Structures are given as structure tokens and as C-alpha cells.
Amino acid sequence: MKFEGQISWYSKTKGIGFISRRVGNNIERYFLSAIRIIYCEPQEPRIGCGVQFDVDPRPPRKLGDSPVATNIEIFEVLS
């Protein structure tokens, strides 16, 4: 099942970041790794870009880690 969200933080040098998704009054965060991107409209991920993604069914590695986003499709958000 595809979810939608926005890139809330991204490190170009590390190739990692976070996706945020609003669910009611809560914000859910998902770990983003550049190796899990299957489509990217801008040349590189940027904060504020809209994304569609799946969630890796495996649990996070350790307590407190965010779930991992996979099959990430990034689309530029138009202002």
C-alpha cells in the first residue's frame, strides 16, 4: 500500500533522510535511504518534495528507530 508524505530532512552527503506524513493530529516519520528511491523527478531529493512510498514490513532495527520507507517515488512540490 502506497503512502504519501514529504521529505522533512535529507543529507546529500550521507544519502539518507526522513519522510514525514500527517495522520490526523500526529506526524509519522519514516527513514529514507537513497538506495530505496525508484523514481525522482528533481535531480536529487530535497526538503519539501512530495513522495509516495511503501513501508518495509520488517520492524526497525532497534527501539526508537523509524520504520523504513521503500519503493520511494519523489515528486517536486510546486509552490
Task: Looking at this protein, list some descriptive labels.
about 80 residues; mainly beta; OB fold (Dihydrolipoamide Acetyltransferase, E2P); six-stranded mixed beta sheet; 6 strands; about 0% helix; globular
What does this structure look like?
The chain has strands at 3-11, 16-23, 26-33, 37-40, 50-55, 69-75. With 79 residues, it is an all-beta fold. It is built from no helices and six strands. Helix content is 0%, strand content 53%. The relative contact order is 0.29.
CATH homologous superfamily assignment: Nucleic acid-binding proteins
Give the total of beta strands. 6
CATH class: Mainly Beta
The biggest sheet amounts to: 6 strands, mixed
Mean pLDDT: 93
Summarize the structure.
The protein is built from no helices and six strands. With 79 residues, it is mostly beta strands.
Produce the secondary structure layout.
Blueprint: E1 3-11, E2 16-23, E3 26-33, E4 37-40, E5 50-55, E6 69-75
Parallel strand pairs: 4-6
Antiparallel strand pairs: 1-2, 1-5, 2-3, 5-6
